[in-house]
Every structure is written in C-alpha cells, then in structure tokens.
C-alpha cells in the first residue's frame, strides 16, 4: 500500500529517488539500453517508468537514466501528463535503414500491388528474425473482409506461410536449431506440432515452390507464400497472399500458389537473385 501511495504522489514517469548504479560495464549498459528500447517498441500504448522497471527487472533510476539519454537523442519520447514513454522518430529512421540496405520494399511493392489486383487478396512481405516471421510491408485487399497485419508484428515461423516458405529453403541444420529453440506451439487444431510432419511438408513446399498456411495460426484464415532469393540463391524474404477461407477455397489454392510463386520469382530477379533450380 505504501508503494502505491508513493507512486501516485510523485511526478509520473520519474524515478522514486536514488542514483543510477555506477560501475556497469559498457556491454551490460548497451544490452540494457537496447532491451529497454525493444520493450517500448512492443508497447504502442506506451509504458510508465515503474512498468518498465518491473518488466525489465532494472532499478527505476537506471531505467530513467537510459530513457532520458534516449530522449535527448530522439529515440524515445514522453507524454509527461500521463507519464508514458514511447519509441521516437529516430527509432523508425534507424530501423528503416535495414530495409534500405537491400531496398526490399521499394522493389517488391509494384509486384505486390499487381498481385493484389490479380488475386484480390492482401499481400504481405516478411523476413525471419530470431526464429519468427516479421512483417515489413503490406498491400491490402479492397475486400470488406480482409487480412491486415501491423507492420513489425511477428508470427510463428512454423504456423505461417511466410515462415514455412523460408524454412523450406534453409539448410537442415539451421531448421533444426530454429525448431529446437522455438518449438512447435499449437495455435489451432490445424497447427503442425510434429517435427516429422513439418519436415515432410517442407519437402513438399520445396517441390511445388510455395507454402500453404491452412488455418494454422488463425481459424478461418488461409495464405499461400513463396520465398524470395538473393544473388547466392539463399532465401532472404517471402511474400504471401492472405484472406478468409471462404474466398480462398480449395479450388483456388493451386492457382493462387502459382501466382505467388511467379511474383516471388519476379521480385527475386529484380533483386538480382535466383531461385535454386529455376530454369
């Protein structure tokens, strides 16, 4: 009860007192800072200082020191009235540099628009980060009922079309490490939670050139996906067509699969890459 009263009476978003602990190593400080920034990026509604301190297991004074440093550099910003901290514009600028490095989005988007016009479903572009799918671009369907994802959001690698399309084109050793670390969580009755079954499906994906997510992450949602390759023939991203099962019926899946594969190959060629085995 005492802590609750203290939190209300002191200025919101500020530490309860005390000085930041001295003597932290540079690597430890950097890890703490980046962990804090990552946690803020996962909280679009913002977080208070006390919440960050609790979630990260850091002293409030340490968290506040990092926040004020980031604020000076425009990596974070604060709503002083509510005591909430948010990621700042500089964070977007730095993150956008990753996309500009290979210009995935700019090259892929015209092809994504064409695919939406051709098939009528939402098209997503995703990459793999730390064993998960991260969506970095989207062109929405014009249908009233359509699939929408927030850019930067994550999806399980084994229960998404983008994830399976890329897994199918990774070395077996890397696939094993990812599955060992991330596991095969069951999200719906259609999720694949058996390693042997998943490996069989990955072989089928390699043969046909595209992957299918058949309500494996969300009931009622289907998607087909195909990998995009770099100049060394390695999968560096994937695109997917996603929509409700009511429209993406069984009779359309083969047609949609070929369309997504063709578009992925066009993007691959535009990037100067090649699909292994492509003639």
Fold blueprint:
Blueprint: H1 2-9, H2 26-41, E1 47-48, H3 49-56, H4 60-72, E2 76-79, E3 84-87, H5 89-102, H6 104-119, E4 122-129, E5 132-139, E6 154-156, H7 161-167, H8 172-182, H9 195-208, E7 211-214, E8 221-229, E9 235-244, H10 250-270
Antiparallel strand pairs: 1-3, 2-3, 4-5, 4-9, 5-6, 7-8, 8-9
Helix pairs in contact: 3-4, 6-10
What is the subunit organization of this protein? single chain
pLDDT averaged residue by residue: 84
Proportion of residues in helical segments? 40-55%
Q: What's the level 1 CATH class of the largest domain?
A: Alpha Beta
What does this structure look like?
- With about 280 residues, the protein is an alpha+beta fold.
- It has two domains: about 1-80, Arc Repressor Mutant, subunit A; about 100-270, Beta-Lactamase (2-Layer Sandwich), CATH 3.30.450.40.
- The chain is built from ten helices and nine strands.
- β7 and β8 (about 220-230) form a beta hairpin.
- The longest helix is centred in the last third of the chain and has 21 residues, at about 250-270.
- Residues about 1-25 have low confidence and may be disordered.
List keywords for this structure.
2 domains; 10 helices; about 280 residues; Arc Repressor Mutant, subunit A; three-stranded antiparallel sheet; Beta-Lactamase
What's a concise summary of this model?
The protein is an alpha+beta fold and 279 residues long. Helix content is 46%, strand content 19%. It starts with a helix and ends in a 9-residue tail after the last helix.
């Amino acid at each position: 009860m005492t802590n609750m009263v203290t939190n209300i009476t002191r200025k919101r978003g500020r530490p309860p007192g005390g000085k930041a602990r001295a003597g932290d190593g540079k690597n430890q400080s950097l890890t703490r800072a980046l962990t804090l920034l990552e946690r803020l990026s996962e909280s679009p509604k913002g977080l208070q200082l006390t919440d960050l301190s609790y979630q990260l297991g850091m002293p409030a004074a340490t968290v506040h020191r990092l926040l004020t440093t980031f604020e000076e550099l425009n990596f974070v910003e604060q709503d002083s009235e509510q005591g909430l901290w948010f990621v700042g514009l500089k964070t977007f600028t730095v993150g956008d540099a990753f996309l500009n490095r290979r210009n995935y989005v700019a090259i892929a988007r015209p092809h994504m628009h064409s695919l939406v016009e051709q098939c009528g479903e939402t098209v997503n572009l995703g990459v793999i980060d730390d064993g998960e799918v991260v969506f970095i671009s989207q062109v929405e369907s014009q249908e009233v009922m359509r699939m929408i994802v927030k850019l930067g959001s994550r999806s399980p690698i084994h229960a998404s079309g983008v994830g399976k399309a890329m897994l199918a084109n990774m070395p077996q050793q890397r696939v094993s490490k990812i599955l060992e670390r991330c596991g095969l969580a069951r999200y719906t009755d259609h999720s694949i939670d058996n390693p042997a079954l998943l490996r069989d499906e990955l072989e089928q994906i390699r043969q046909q050139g595209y992957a299918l997510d058949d309500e494996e992450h969300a009931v009622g949602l289907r998607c087909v996906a195909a990998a995009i390759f770099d100049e060394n023939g390695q999968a560096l991203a994937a695109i997917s067509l996603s929509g409700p099962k009511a429209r993406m019926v069984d009779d359309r899946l083969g047609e949609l699969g070929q369309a997504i594969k063709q578009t992925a190959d066009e993007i691959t060629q535009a990037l100067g890459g090649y699909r292994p085995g492509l003639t």
